[in-house]
Amino acid sequence: MQIVRTLAHLRQVLDDLNSKGATLGFVPTMGALHAGHLALVEEARAQTGVVICSIFVNPLQFNRAEDLARYPRHEEEDLALLKPAGVDLVFMPEVGDLFGGGWEPPVYDLGGLDTVLEGAWRPGHFQGVAQVVGRLLDLIPCTDLYMGLKDYQQCLVVQRLLDTRKGRQAVLHRRPTVRDAMGLALSSRNLLLSAEDLERARGIARTWRWMKEALAAPPSGAVPLSLAAPPSGAVPLSGAVPFSPSAPFSPSAPFSPSALIEGGLHRLEQEGLRPEYLSLVRDGTLDPWSGPADDGLPRALFAGWLGSVRLIDNELLAP
């Protein structure tokens, strides 16, 4: 496994690989690696001839300087994970090298994908994501690009970026979110959580299960009481809002998207989280999901806080 830290060295190595006609699989990361990243590497290893992984904490996508400073960095541990996973090249540039040499960050037309939901709460975030991904793709002419659906909106943004770039572009492979045994989505930010907060964070997965069961409830008869009860094993914060849906579910009051969102928000609060948003979109888009008559499946998108740590997650609410 080669470790490359400069653009000059990267160009030298890539010239050699390109001369051999190898297909290149690229897994861009910000480090603090976990099993979710390794699943992307595994898929790239199975589908391409050469696997490249980047580790770069991108300052352009952070809205707050303190968040950038706190982001976990574990270089030795990351490299120890990547070598046995079959990565051929790890690119670990410095900010001044990657963004130096007169490079100016372009402003991309992302079709509005960067201004709603996560983009509304983090203005400029997705421009920063598109800028670093575009820069890396200019340097690494990969045939295949691998990203996780844990960052669902980011995947849509990157696909939009690929669609607007000129010339032959990489195929984006989006892999399902990897979760622990209790359903918590693996995330580098989980390293910032205490053991107590990790249990609270698993309340997101419990909320997904509740929403799936609510959608699957028969059209006649009330939703089972167990669905409206506080989650077992929850560790509520002091002063958390008790779960109490504003309207019971009954044959005369179908479960609307707004009621599902309201119930989900109450559940997340009962779990001890402070939601910023909970939305239902038509899978594959950011368009609002309008209910069972909609021609698409609902995907739930969440962002919120546990103490000083901000978490995001999403789940396809298919039966």
Give an overview in words:
The structure is a single chain. With 319 residues, the chain is of the alpha/beta class. It has helices at residues 7-19, 35-47, 65-70, 75-85, 95-98, 118-121, 125-139, 152-164, 195-201, 203-216, 225-228, 257-270, and strands at 2-4, 24-29, 50-55, 89-91, 144-148, 171-175, 274-282, 298-306, 309-316. The strands form 2 sheets. The protein has a 6-stranded parallel β-sheet with strand order 1-4-3-2-5-6, with helices on both faces. A 3-stranded antiparallel β-sheet has the order 7-8-9, with helices on one face. The protein starts with a strand and ends with a strand.
Protein topology:
Layout: E1 2-4, H1 7-19, E2 24-29, H2 35-47, E3 50-55, H3 65-70, H4 75-85, E4 89-91, H5 95-98, H6 118-121, H7 125-139, E5 144-148, H8 152-164, E6 171-175, H9 195-201, H10 203-216, H11 225-228, H12 257-270, E7 274-282, E8 298-306, E9 309-316
Parallel strand pairs: 1-4, 2-3, 2-5, 3-4, 5-6
Antiparallel strand pairs: 7-8, 8-9
Helix content: 25-40%
The largest β sheet comes out as: 6 strands, parallel
Strands in their spatial order, largest beta sheet: 1-4-3-2-5-6
Secondary-structure element pattern, one letter each: EHEHEHHEHHHEHEHHHHEEE
* CATH homologous superfamily title of the largest domain: HUPs
CATH class category name of the largest domain: Alpha Beta
Strand fraction equals: 15-25%
Mean pLDDT: 88
Q: Which class do the helix and strand fractions yield?
A: alpha/beta
Overall, the morphology is globular
Any idea what the radius of gyration is?
A: 21 Å
CATH architecture of the largest domain: 3-Layer(aba) Sandwich
Number of domains: 2
CATH topology of the largest domain: Rossmann fold
Terminal-residue CA separation: 42 Å
Number of helices: 12
How many β-strands, per DSSP?
Answer: 9
